[in-house]
Amino acid sequence: MKWWIKQIWIIPGVVILLFSCEKERFFTGDSVSLTFSCDTVMFDTVFTTIGSTTKYFLVKNPYSKDLKISEIYLAGGENSNFRLNIDGLKALQLENIELPAGDSLYVFVEVTVDPQNQNSPMVVKDSVVFITNGNFQDIDLVAWGQDVHLISGEIVQTQTWINDKPYLVYNSMLIDSMQKLTVDPGVRVHFHRNSTMYIMGSLEIHGTLEEPVVFQGDRLESEYAEIPGQWGGIYFLNGSVGNIIEYLEIRNGTTGLHLGNLYSEKEPPDLTISNSIITQMNFAGISAINAKIDASNCIIADCGFYGIVLTTGGEYEFNHCTVSNNWKYFNRVTPTVLITNYYNLNDTALFTGELEKATFGNCIVYGDIETEIGFDIIKSGGSFQYYFDHCLIKVNTSEVDVSDPMRYNNVFINNAPGFIAVDSMNFQLDSCAFALDKGSQEIGIRFPNDILGNSRTNDPGPDIGAYERLDDR
After folding, report:
1. Are residues 233 and 153 part of one domain?
2. CA 72 to CA 93: how far, in whole Å?
3. Is there a single domain that holds both residue 191 and residue 97?
4. Which end of the chain, N or C, is more open, meaning fewer C-beta atoms within 10 Å of its C-beta?
């Protein structure tokens, strides 16, 4: 037999041998099943036109032999709202994916929801399909979408935001000089990462007990619920006057409210704020540079550096406010209330101002470090007037002299207030709380109702802080 005829007979044998090896290498049973880390990937509310966070699930080969996944694809194909990344490859569809014995691969998922011009949330669905040895398996994808009023880098003129669908601030915004933004009860405003509301004109927020206004980040997944620093804050610039805030909840930003700026000859900003809650700010709940603030029935809690920081002078009055700080993300060493008459700008410029007034009446200032009230004074800064009246405060008395009657009147030192549950941000007072009935009657009459609308005038004395406990004692 000629040599080339022998080669022809050898070639089919080699093909058969290779095919047999391929079959031996991969598990070929018709009952094969991949295992998954979940059966549904669920996205909480995703705002239209704005992409979601990235979620993922694992796909595992549970067998002692390699598997060949014939196909992985999005059931919705090119029309899907979802996007996939399969082990580092962005694709709607992949074929012949080899998965070694006992090994896993990651499938990453994102979603963008198209606007539907409707106020109520909508649901968007799809699935990721896996075909292995002819067997079909899939993972459901579900996202709740919400249309929004998109405010992207805009200079806002006089207008009113109504409670129909949420507002999303993207790339920050500015309320123009001499213009006013009015926010109706129940409005929800979400801020994209690093976005801030700047005010040169004026802001009026008219929330109610039943329908508070809420400012927070735009990530609504449960894992973001308590993460600070997701957006900037509300910044009132010099020249911004006539600002009023009622029943506003501010969550998870960098600085909740900031008033004032350096290098400005304009009138310092002013703010009257009541019945409002500021929590989990990366830097401060309220910060001010030579501004004017009148605050009552407010709660400021769990901020990275300061609950309240007042610098470079100004005029401030806080009544029936609860300032509590049990920051958990790093070791806080700064007092939750700091009052100074200067501002040191990066050691390049020193600004000073007269502290005409910083009055705290029937307030709680408490936290988890030894001293929660601090003062930093430059004598050349001029007047430095502060006063604590019927307040419960936490201080090291060797550092803070509370015996001066010109500064302190009927203050209570280092007694735990008696909050119901600090860990769950419930700063109402329990039935045995130290702060019960210890407030000034005069101040209580000026602010006869607490943050929940409960009367302060029906028992022997008003409770210290933003909440009045009503049960029989």
Report:
1. yes
2. 6
3. no
4. N
Q: Does some domain include residue 83?
A: yes
In a domain, 13, yes or no: no
Listed residue (402, 398, 333, 339) closest to 367, CA to CA: 333
The number of beta carbons lying within 10 Å of the beta carbon of residue 379 is 8
Does one domain contain both 175 and 257? yes
Domain assignment of residue 280, yes or no = yes
Contact between residue 167 and residue 149 where contact means Cβ atoms under 8 Å apart: yes
φ, ψ dihedrals at 6, nearest 5°: -60, -40
Model confidence, pTM:
0.84
- For the record, the structure tokens of 457 come out as 């005038």
> pLDDT at position 223, please?
78
Domain count for the chain: 2
Question: Cβ(461)–Cβ(435) under 8 Å?
Answer: no
Q: Which residues contact 390 (CB under 8 A, 6 or more apart)?
A: 361, 362, 409, 410, 411, 438, 439, 440, 443, 464
Q: Is residue 198 part of a domain?
A: yes
Span 285-343, pLDDT tens digits = 999 999 999 999 999 999 999 999 999 999 999 999 999 999 999 999 999 999 999 99
**End-to-end CA gap in the chain:** 113
Query: Which of 102, 117, 145 is a domain's end point?
Result: 145
Structure tokens at 177: 């000089």
According to DSSP, residue 113 is labeled P
Q: Are residues 77 and 65 in the same domain?
A: yes
Q: Which domain, by its residues, includes 107?
A: 35-145
What does the alpha-carbon distance between residue 190 and residue 198 come to, in Å, rounded to a whole number? 15
Specify the pairing of strand 364-367 against strand 392-393. parallel
404-412 contacts: CB < 8 A, separation 24 or more?
A: 410/440, 412/438, 412/464
Q: What is the DSSP letter of 346?
A: T
What is the per-residue pLDDT for 222?
79
CA atoms within 13 A on the CB side of 213: 25
For the beta carbon of residue 366, count every other beta carbon within 10 angstroms. 25
* pLDDT for 472: 55
| Cα–Cα dist 112/132, whole Å | 29
pLDDT at 12 over 80: no
- The whole-angstrom separation of Cα 434 and Cα 364 is 11
d(CA 373, CA 400): 8
Rounded Cα distance, 392 and 367, in Å? 11
**SS3 call for 9:** helix
Find out whether 464 and 364 touch, Cβ atoms under 8 Å: yes
